[in-house]
Amino acid sequence: MRRPWWISVLRYIALAAILLWSGFPILLMVMASLKPDREIFKFPPDFIFRPTFANYIELFTSRPAFFDALLNSIIITLGATLLTVVSSTLAGYIYSRYRNTALAGSAFFMIVIRMLPPIIITLPLFPVVNALGLQDTYLVLIVLYATFFVSLNTWIMKAFIDQIPRELDEAAIVDGASTVKVLRYVIVPLSIQGIIATATFVFVFSWNEFLFAFIFTTSKAKTAPLVISEMLSSLAGIDWGVLFAAATLQFVPIMVLVVMLQRFVVAGLTVGSVKG
Amino acid sequence: MPVRFFHYLMVAPVQLLLLFIIGIPSLFVFWQGLTEFSYGQDAVFVGLDNYKSVLTDRAFWRAFSNTFIIVNAVVYIEIAAAIGISILFAGGVPFRRLMIAILLVPYAVNEVTAVVMWRFMLEPNVGLLTQLLNSVGLPTLNWPTNRWDALTVIVLLSIWLNLPFTTIIIYTARLSIPQEIYEAARTDGASPLQAFFYVTFPMLIPAILIALLFRYVFAFRIFGEVWLLTRGGPAGSTEVLATYLYRNSFRYLELGRASAIGWLMLVTTLLMAMFYLRQVYKRMLS
Lengths: 276, 286
Hints:
heterodimer, A: mainly alpha, MetI-like fold, about 80% helix, globular, B: mainly alpha, 12 helices, about 75% helix
């Protein structure tokens, strides 16, 4: 069907507005991180300019703590991702293949509990974490991040495993394969899309999380978003150029990952929400 | 196949995490809400006193109404925008994969960086958008001192961060509507507007309900955007429930009171999700 010309024009205007809305704040910040201080708030901003790495160099020399925090973020994110992916693949397999009242009840519990606001549990957990000497450690954040994603991720894994014909793993079991072998040679290879999707969700969440890091870390285990937030609320005034450099370094790797894994993110969200 | 003990062990990691990190602590919050205590003190049972004190506190109701305003603005604007974007994209756009990638990018941005970006644009006097609005003579957002301007910025930020999620849910539902239905509608003489109201919208309703549910539940917890932008200020005028809870527990150390707020948030969340949870329950356990 041919569209009237004015509809096409409106469509292009709408498309441009969407792209501007989504991409422009990011573009402005990344560009500003490459500008000298005096040009950052210049209006109208230059889109063509000679980039300088002065802000990045200053970040490196004046805020070495940021790079420690990046390393903390990497460790915590990898830990939480591993814990979540392994535990939700195991559980997703069981929920997909076996059924009884106890399992159905526990699956329902899993869905209800995922609704609760995370801030609530900081109240009783804070003293417990302190009493156990776990405040400001990687372990607390790894466990908390994993806990808030195992529910969704188990559900997504169940949906992906549901699509694998049962005959495949049942035949393997009849032939005497152990559950470990069934998982390793049948389930995991055939649900790899789901594994990538669930890993991406928890990875992005853990990399970006603010509330728990804010409450449960004070120095040693601080994550990158927390250090950026401290730079933002610095009493000495905000050093915008350095702040942009830090935010860009935190954001660009995860953006590349999300764009590369776009198709899995979309598939996982669709399956997880529509069938959940 | 029969369920064996070993199979329970395989769901145990997930279930134990949920039970020990969320389940038991949230029940404990209920108990804490009935007591008065602070760190290092013994809890004293006070019955419903904390609830009375919270529910008669004007600051609580201000936090409640701010949360209510933010949640409703965010959720409905997002859903409307997501429907619009889905229809636009389903009608065919150039460089579709690249466009979707750009649409998806804010999903990768954390709350702190989002606040950094939006403050860069909206900082009074010097922000780039502020300067643009000034230069064409439009009023600017005075968010550090004006409650409504601050709430507007919080809503914008929150929409910016979460629109990718809402859009993907609705867009994939739009893609799964068979093209033949549109062709049939067209041969029957339906205008594009009629096709939207009689085909697209009704068929999107399940996805819209899911998006509504999740966005309500998640927007209700809003903390980072508010805390990082205004700290709930000026003078508590942009406080939301989560920042109000945080202030009561970690600043005033009024843990009994904070727990009562927490339990009120929990019950509200479950009420919002009740319809959905009832459906899930029916499907799974009967």
